[in-house]
Amino acid sequence: MPRRPSGRRRLTKHRPLAFSPFMRSLALASSTAKSKLPHPQDCQCSEEITFDEKLPNLSKKEKKEQLSDSSDEEDSEGDVQADFEFFDPKATDFNGVKILLQHYLDNKEWDLSRFVDLILEQTTVGTVVKVADDEDESVFAVITALNLGRYKDNKCFRELKEFLVKVCSEKNVASNLQVLLEKKAKDVGLLVSQRVMNLPPQLLPPLYDGTFDEVSWATED
After folding, report:
1. C-alpha span between 16 and 204 (Å, rounded)
2. How do beta strands 84-87 and 127-131 pair?
3. Distance CA 131, CA 136 (A)
4. What structural domains does the chain harbor?
5. Of the residues 7, 100, 170, 200, which has the maximum number of CB atoms within 10 A of its CB?
6. pLDDT tens for each residue of the chain, 221 residues long
7. Burial class of 178 by CB neighbour count within 10 A (0 to 12, 13 to 18, 19+)
8. Cα separation, 110 vs 113, whole angstroms
9. Residue range 62-73, pLDDT digits in tens
10. Residue by residue, what is the 3-state secondary structure of the chain?
11. Are the C-beta atoms of residues 155 and 117 closer than 8 Å to each other?
């Protein structure tokens, strides 16, 4: 089996991967406390205004020119061209990764800095997404998997596990979760995945594919 290349990795096409049932349950537990935005179809407008009503005194030619200018302005403001590439995490990514994870445990105060250090120190598994040839090297996404057994003695992991158990309201689920976090910790990996909101979604499948490949290669060593 070929090994993953180190350093810069360009985007390739892969099939999408779904979350595991365990990760879906954690995501559901974390999202229940957050309000949901209504679907656009559920929103009601009190008045519908047509384009002709907005520009009643203009000729058809003037209205067409106005609409064309408005569309060009929206396109220029909304479209940003960028070439994203995948990189191995490194120490200089600390601030960028920390910003992405600042609300990882909602508003809980915990040892986030140490958590970020662990992500960057793990060289076998993990990827950050940046813009190609960007001098600032801003981090737009990070993904990795951290073994709970390996890092169990770190304060940040103790705080993280306490948070997960606390936000799990169902007793049966909380009990099973406690077993995974403690007794079976050496066989459990924490999937850390965070990105900026407007990151192109087509980047996600290869990110997850690459991460699971790296986990497989790391467990073989």
Report:
1. 8
2. antiparallel
3. 9
4. 49-78 (no CATH), 81-220 (3.40.630)
5. 100
6. 444 544 555 443 333 333 344 444 444 444 443 333 344 344 443 343 343 444 455 554 554 455 455 545 555 455 667 789 999 999 999 999 999 999 999 999 999 999 999 999 998 999 999 998 877 889 999 999 999 999 999 999 999 999 999 998 888 888 899 999 999 999 999 999 999 998 999 999 999 999 999 999 988 86
7. middle
8. 9
9. 544 554 555 455
10. CCCCCCCCECCCCCCCCCCCHHHHHHHHHHHCCCCCCCCHHHCCCCCCCCHHHHCCCCCHHHHHHHHHHHHHHHHHHHCCCCCEEEECCCHHHHHHHHHHCCCCCCCCCCCHHHHHHHHHHCCCCCEEEEECCCCCCCCCEEEEEEECCCCCCCHHHHHHHHHHHHHCCCHHHHHHHHHHHCCCHHHCEEEEEEECCCCCHHHHHHHHHHHHHHHHHHHHC
11. no
Q: Both tokens of residue 6?
A: 């180190």
How many whole angstroms separate alpha carbon 30 and alpha carbon 167?
7
- Tokens standing for 214? 């790296």
Amino acid at 10: R
